[in-house]
């Protein structure tokens, strides 16, 4: 990947910040560098603590879904928090994770893979676990691994549309009958057989996992084969303004209860969290370039780090940072944003609540952007990728069941 990276004082700052024992705060960074390009503010301590808590409380293996945020500093922080399994979806992600962590267990969890990606993953990067949702993909995996005798294969089950903000039911997953046939066909070929699903991202209902596990149980019963892995996928939610999910523990309780009901004592549970591990771990600081009524023209947008604020219309927590650290006494008002590109679709309706006197030159920190933020940025219209710095701040929003202020060792 080539990024437009203009020479920038922040590059030096990033190096200092990442290696410093106690990173600076967001406000210190902004007051000292007064950035005119957007900056990502990574919270390594938050990432570490969030990962450590998920790993400790989930009764099974935690596979981080790399696509959600593949930044090397993010992956390092999750590793430090105890994550050892990685859910990769491309040859690039597999090579990235293997390059950073020789001892990581990598799972190739995209149901439709390039033949070359299967070969590379198996032969160069020691990947043994592959997901599939069709007979064609099963044949492809067997051919490209030379009919390997040491494979773990996971059959992805399709789910009916559920109660998630992002529906993922349309693209992947075998219908029940086909999943049954795939489980039977794969069993004699593998050392490890699993069944997986994805309830959809930002899933607001813990019962969605119970329903999906019941369907997985039905597939397993009908197939009549031994099962080694039940993979409940991703979808674990975080807080956004006016959208507070049930505590993470409520999801784990439904999963464990429904898994126990399947009566598969020899099987292992896997989860593939993306958003839940990293959303609170990063924010982006943008600058206001122009104000027109209640619309602010800012220097990042839907072609940059704020893709989810565009058409998906996610709302994010926002706060003013004013030059010199001055505070605003003005009341909060609802604002919408335009991004920097010339496309009128580069629009984020929010609402984002900010002081009524906000003006050109002010900065805005926008939170909960560690998931599906920076990694979706393009170079459209000459606006490149934002720099990343490490900071010691808390998350901008607390998610129930995630580590609180008292559990974050910010100096570590
Ligand atoms: C995207 C994805 C995930 C992560 O989903 P979140 O909703 O971010 O937790 C997990 N598994 C698969 C197969 C995915 O495609």
From TrEMBL:
- Can you state which reaction this protein catalyses? L-ornithine + H(+) = putrescine + CO2
Q: Does the keyword Lyase apply?
A: yes
UniProt entry keywords in alphabetical sequence: Lyase, Pyridoxal phosphate
Q: What class of enzyme is it?
A: lyase
Q: Which cofactors, if any, are listed as required?
A: pyridoxal 5'-phosphate
Q: Give GO cellular component annotations, separated by semicolons.
A: cytoplasm
Domain named Orn/DAP/Arg decarboxylase 2 N-terminal is located at 54-279
Catalytic positions? Answer: 342
Q: According to its UniProt record, which protein family does this protein belong to?
A: Belongs to the Orn/Lys/Arg decarboxylase class-II family.
| Name of protein | ornithine decarboxylase
Organism encoding this protein: Acidisoma cellulosilyticum
